[in-house]
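hiii so um. not sure if this is the right channel but i have a protein structure encoded as tokens and i wanna go backwards to a sequence. like what aa goes where. can anyone help
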């Protein structure tokens, strides 16, 4: 019985977070309401408040959950040593989440563009050290002459910018694609193109 209740709570929390991503992306933090989120999650508003006491708490949870998802995307930096495999795997994971979690990417972008008023401390505590570890790995490849010399931080920025573009500017991409989102074949070509451009830029073949 307890296990079933735990699963229900997990599912409800996940539904609320995904609904919140959509509402915050479409209406912004100021325009979103707990009622809007409850309606989209198909749960009573009281249930939303049970899991998240305030809108700010829910907003923060959305952002931190996204950060954890993106950290998981980068586990390849620890699992593999070959720069071509690491970066190809990372780019593909980032592209896939830009497609499946486009609303979340937009919420993240909006927060950071406003100098992270809600998440400032969390970013300094979590993102900074995490990024420095990835930069150190890239620097090792450069020193071993496994990739061409580049500034590690800018390589990461380029990957983030090019992959998250497909989420943050999905409307523009659809507009330029005859008012249709990219289908599976087009999206796979996009993944391959982004991967090829970045790898070739540091002296690797895709």
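sure thing!! here u go:
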């Amino acid at each position: 019985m307890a296990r079933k209740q735990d699963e229900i709570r997990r599912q409800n929390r996940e539904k609320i977070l995904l609904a919140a991503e959509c509402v915050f992306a479409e209406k912004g933090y100021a325009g979103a309401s707990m009622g809007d989120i409850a309606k989209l999650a198909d749960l009573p508003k009281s249930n939303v408040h049970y899991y998240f006491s305030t809108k700010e708490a829910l907003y923060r949870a959305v952002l931190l959950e996204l950060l954890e998802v993106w950290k998981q995307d980068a586990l390849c930096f620890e699992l593999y040593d070959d720069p071509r495999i690491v970066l190809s795997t990372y780019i593909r994971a980032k592209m896939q989440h830009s497609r499946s979690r486009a609303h979340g990417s937009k919420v993240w972008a909006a927060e950071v563009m406003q100098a992270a008023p809600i998440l400032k401390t969390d970013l300094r505590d979590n993102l900074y050290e995490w990024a420095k570890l990835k930069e150190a790995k890239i620097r090792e490849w450069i020193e071993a002459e496994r990739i061409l010399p580049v500034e590690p931080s800018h390589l990461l920025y380029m990957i983030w910018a090019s992959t998250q573009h497909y989420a943050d500017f999905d409307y523009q991409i659809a507009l330029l694609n005859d008012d249709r989102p990219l289908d599976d074949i087009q999206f796979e070509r996009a993944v391959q193109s982004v991967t090829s451009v970045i790898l070739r830029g540091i002296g690797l073949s895709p």
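oh and The mean pLDDT is 95.
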